[in-house]
Design brief:
Largest sheet: 2 strands, antiparallel
GO molecular function, one term: UDP-N-acetylglucosamine transmembrane transporter activity
Subcellular location: Endomembrane system
Shape: globular
Keywords: Membrane, Signal, Sugar transport, Transmembrane, Transmembrane helix, Transport
Number of domains: 1
InterPro entries: SCL35B1-4/HUT1
Family: Belongs to the nucleotide-sugar transporter family. SLC35B subfamily.
Number of strands: 2
Strand content: under 5%
Distance between the termini: 38 Å
């Protein structure tokens, strides 16, 4: 039951979060730092009140282990959002991060000495291939006009390449963090709420490095068009409203992910998160009325096939169909 609820939180929260993030990025492409900071403050405050009881509850997992996890988590979060400043299109950004399936499996084999069945390898390959197809098709639809000199064109390409390098580094770091969490839970038990709090509270001083950029975007957000918030009737700048929605949906999403890490293996968590990213892409394309080509449908079908293969649906169906036959034979 806990696993189903966690998956529900991941899909609903994260899909809504992607829409609000795209609304923010379309208006201010460099707003990654203020978005990350706001998310961390909200989740840390909630955890400080409800999880640690205003700091009176001692952590079950040693702080030294949380420092290692927090360093990885903070690095991944900041780099992923900061990469949007390097001419990375939102669809490409979402799907590139979904390559964590392969990264997680490779690091699992190297670090944890895990071995997987052939069907697991095939399912991961299918899911990754389907996502890759959708990425390429979505990236081709983003046309960036370069009317400048050849030197400016080269600079733009290198700028974009740096963003890709940042996403690659964050991808590997994220996979390593997932494995580290899995090892911690095996040693000290499962404490998802505690991990969620410390992962967002301990990195807060690190945002001092981005204080100038965060303040600049606070000013820009305050200057955006004012809107009336439904139901409440309060008037506020629309960018602050988008940020508020983003914060709440991010909390719902990440809460689901942390619950999932206590219920499932690292690779299974990665698969759920990857499918969420894929559905977020499809939803984003439909919501923002971006073209959805035949190749997008091909990618969708491949991802769906890979998911069925990974979850061994076919085996479950065959077992269910053979069940009555076995019983009949036993009855005879």
């Amino acid at each position: 039951m806990g696993t189903v609820f966690a998956i529900f939180l991941v899909f609903v929260g994260c899909c809504s979060n992607v829409v609000s993030l795209e609304l923010l990025v379309r208006e201010f492409p460099g707003c990654g730092n203020i978005v990350t900071f706001a998310q961390f403050v909200f989740i840390a405050l909630e955890g400080f009140i409800f999880e640690t009881n205003f700091g009176r509850k001692k952590p079950a997992i040693p702080i030294s282990n949380y420092v290692i996890m927090v360093t990885m988590f903070f690095t991944v979060s900041v780099i992923n959002n900061y990469a949007l400043n390097f001419n990375i299109a939102m669809p490409l950004h979402m799907i590139f991060r979904s390559g964590s399936l392969i990264a997680n499996m490779i690091l699992g084999i190297i670090i944890l000495k895990k071995r997987y069945s052939a069907s697991k390898y095939l399912s991961i390959a299918l899911v990754s291939a389907g996502i890759f197809i959708c990425t390429i098709m979505s990236a081709k639809q983003v046309n960036v006009a370069n009317d400048g000199s050849e030197e400016q064109g080269f600079y733009t390409f290198m700028h974009w390449l740096m963003g890709i390098a940042m996403l690659t580094f964050a991808l590997l770091m994220s996979a390593r963090m997932g494995i580290f969490q899995e090892m911690l839970y095996k040693t000290y038990g499962k404490h998802s709420k505690e991990a969620l709090f410390y992962n967002h509270c301990l990195p807060l001083p690190g945002f001092l490095l981005f204080s100038t950029d965060i303040y600049k975007h606070c000013v820009l957000f305050s200057q955006s068009t004012p809107v009336v918030v439904p139901v409440v009737g309060v008037t506020m700048p629309i960018m602050w409203l988008y940020l508020l929605i983003n914060i709440i949906t991010q909390y719902v999403c990440i809460r689901g992910v942390f619950i999932l890490t206590t219920e499932c293996a690292s690779l299974t968590v990665t698969l759920v998160v990857t499918l969420r990213k894929f559905l977020s892409l499809i939803f984003s394309i439909l919501y923002f009325q971006n073209p959805f080509t035949t190749w997008h449908w091909v990618g969708t079908a491949v991802v769906f096939l890979g998911t069925l293969l990974y979850t061994e649906v076919w085996s479950s169906v065959r077992t269910a169909l053979r069940g009555p036959v076995v019983k009949d034979k036993k009855a005879e």
